[in-house]
Structure formats: C-alpha cells, structure tokens
Design brief:
385 residues, Thrombin, subunit H, six-stranded antiparallel barrel, globular, ten-stranded antiparallel beta sheet, 2 domains, 2 helices, disordered N terminus, 38% strand
Length: 385
C-alpha cells in the first residue's frame, strides 16, 4: 500500500485583524493600499497557464459558509439545525457562524459540534474519520435538505466539490462548484475512510459537500478533507450516517418545507440600473481564452455574456520600476485577476482588491488580465502606467 501526506484544506487562517479585514473586503469593495501608492509586485506560484475555475453554486441552497474563530471552512445544511462539515473544522473551537448565501442569506450560530476526528496538526489524520456536524442555535429553513449516502460509492463514480475558494481567493458571500471529478477508494493511498480524486479543492474548502447525482436526486457522498501533490482526500459520510441521523433526530428532526404564502398581488418587477457610461475602445470577441487576449489600452468597454464568460486582455512593460494600476468598474460584481509571463510559465500577481491591482513592475514582461463575474454585465476596464 502506498501512503501520501495530505494537508488539511480547512486551514485558511487569518493571522491578524488586518488580514481578516482585507479578506472580508475582497468580497465587496476590496482592501486597497493607501491612496495613490503602489506596492512592490508580488507573484504567486508558477503555473503552465493562468486558469479560472469554479462556477457559482447558486443551485445548491444547502451550501454553507462556516466562519470559525480566526479561520473559515465550508459546509452544507442537512437539517434545519444541523450542518455537515469536516472534523478538522470543529476541533479546538466552540462556536461558529453559519451562513446559507443561496437561501436568502439565512444565518445562525452554532455552539455545539460532534466529530470523532483527532487532529494531527496541519496534515489530515488518515486514521480517523474527518467528518463533523455543527448543531445550530436556531433553524435555517430550506425547501430541500440533501440526503447522505448510506453506502460507499463505487470507484469511477462521478462527483462534484462545493467550496468557498476560487483561484485562491476566499469568498464571504458565495460558494463555487468545481469541475466533475472521479472518485476512487482512498485505501490504496493510506486513507481507508475516504475517497481520493484529482485535486480541485483549496485551503478553506474543507467541509464543503461532495455531491453525486444532480437536482433533487443529488446526495452528499463525502466532505472535502485535504489535498496536496495533485490528489485530494474526501471523507466518506456513509461511515457516520447512523450517528448523524441520531443527532438530527435529537435536534429538531429533518424538518419540513416551510409554507410560502401566495401573494394577493404580484410583486413589482425589479428595475435594473443602467450601466455606467463607458468611453473607450470596445472589446473584440472572441477573447475568452488567454491565448486570444485583446490588447489592453487605457480604457476598454466590455461585457460578460454570462456567469461562465471570462474576458482576457494583455499588456506589457519594458523595464522594472513601472508603477501601474489595472481596475474594473461595473454595475455588477465584475472582478479582475492578472498573471505575468515568466518565460516558461505564468505567475499570478497579488490583487490589491477584487476590482483593482496596483503595483510596481519588478522586471520587463507581458501580463494577461482576466475579467469575470457571477452574472451577465457590462464593465469598464482601465490600465494606468
């Protein structure tokens, strides 16, 4: 039997109040540097190509953001007062805030939890089941609570991961669903109570549900546990099924769909604010891959056709020491990511906020910029250098 060491993906830890404030702001207006200043260019791990992954998980009303004391995880509401997550997301803590962003942002506190998991620090313990539930102080009411698998999934089963991290950025307003994965037994790599697959999850995705099936036929087969070296570990929920059902029964039961009153008069149609005026060069389609990027001038007027559309742009500097700023403005939630060519690959540039990247070039080079959002919308993209 081969054995691997897997890092726990719940360890998205804020080391200071400033870091927490910046992470929170990144979900809205951002955590900007002082007015008019530019920080030294910070690049991330090199990749073969800049990649944008994960789609908004708005179809999963049970998907939950779990905010602990100084850290974040993901989860799923499986009964009005019971939330499923990873064991290492609850060990060492005694209170959590749970938010269901796709269920009218209902939220509740939890001050009790159950798990059999034993922590071994930053690495996933392969000898105990990394599954937990948090008991809420009040109900989160949904029209559908997903069932749990009662037996092991056969190797080769297709599943999807849900979590709150996309491209290394934590979300405090939503969750994302990844590309389909193929489950196989974790026993062959030393994790007998888990499935393994190709790595999709990132730090902060721990506890997020792993679904098999779709629509109202979906069920939760596992929770995100950890990853590393291209492999991710997903803790099996069927191994804790009986205990979880007991806890649901002891804490209000499985719940019934709430009754929605029929309105006597139809609600007024929502009004959409007009998009901000844009005076600049027009986006040239197709530019939905980094290899087909438009040249980025001072101001570009573009539009995203859907939540899955990503628009790409490119620009260059000829030396080190060039202060620059790339920013996007829109009537929606359009945001920007940027990479710099290393000659053999691409390295991501640290964002100043979700809508702005300001820095000083560390060398000559070519950049690519990705603009994305969770809905169709127009935007204005600006480059100042």
């Amino acid at each position: 039997m081969n054995s691997i060491v897997i890092g726990a993906r719940g360890a998205f830890v804020f080391t200071s109040h400033l870091a927490l404030a910046c992470a929170l702001a990144a979900a809205s207006s951002g955590c900007a540097d002082p007015e008019g200043s530019a920080i030294e260019e910070t690049v991330g791990e090199q990749v073969a190509q800049p990649i944008v992954n994960g789609s908004p998980a708005s179809a999963y009303t049970e998907a939950a953001l779990i905010n602990g004391p100084g850290y974040i995880c993901s989860g799923a509401v499986i009964a009005p007062r019971v939330v499923l997550t990873a064991g290492h997301c609850v060990t060492g803590a005694s209170s959590w805030t749970v938010v269901a962003p796709y269920a009218q942002n209902q939220s509740a506190k939890g001050s009790r939890a159950w798990t059999e998991y034993t922590s071994t620090g930053e690495f996933v313990n392969p000898n105990t089941l990394d599954v937990a539930v948090i008991v809420l102080d009040k109900a989160i009411n949904l029209s559908f609570y997903p069932p749990l698998s009662t037996t092991a999934q056969p190797s080769g089963t297709t599943a999807v991961n849900v979590g709150r991290i996309r491209n290394g950025q934590a979300s405090f307003t939503g969750l994302f669903v990844g590309a389909p994965i193929t489950l196989r037994s974790g026993s062959s790599v030393g994790f007998p109570t888990a499935y393994v697959s190709q790595e999709i999850i990132e730090s902060g995705d721990s506890g997020g549900p792993v679904f098999v099936g779709s629509g109202t036929a979906r069920k939760i087969a596992a929770v995100n546990s950890g990853g590393g070296g291209g492999t991710q570990v997903l803790a099996r929920v069927d191994l804790a099924y009986a205990k979880i059902q007991q806890l649901i029964a002891e804490n209000g039961g499985s719940g019934t769909p709430p009754v929605t009153p029929t309105p006597t008069t139809p609600p007024p149609a929502p009004t959409t604010p007009p998009p901000p005026a844009c005076a600049g060069a027009a986006e040239a389609e197709p530019n939905n891959t980094s290899s087909a990027a438009n040249a980025l001038g001072a101001t570009t007027c573009g539009a995203l056709s859907s939540s899955s559309d990503v628009d790409w742009y490119t620009w260059s500097v000829d030396r080190a020491g060039v202060a620059y700023e790339v920013s996007v403005a829109s009537p929606g939630d359009a945001n920007v990511l940027m990479w710099k060519s290393t000659g053999t690959g691409w390295s991501q540039i640290a964002s100043t906020s979700s809508t702005r990247i300001a820095a000083t070039s560390s060398s000559a080079g070519r950049y690519v910029v990705a603009v994305r959002g969770t809905a169709a919308q127009s935007y204005t993209l600006k480059l100042t250098k």
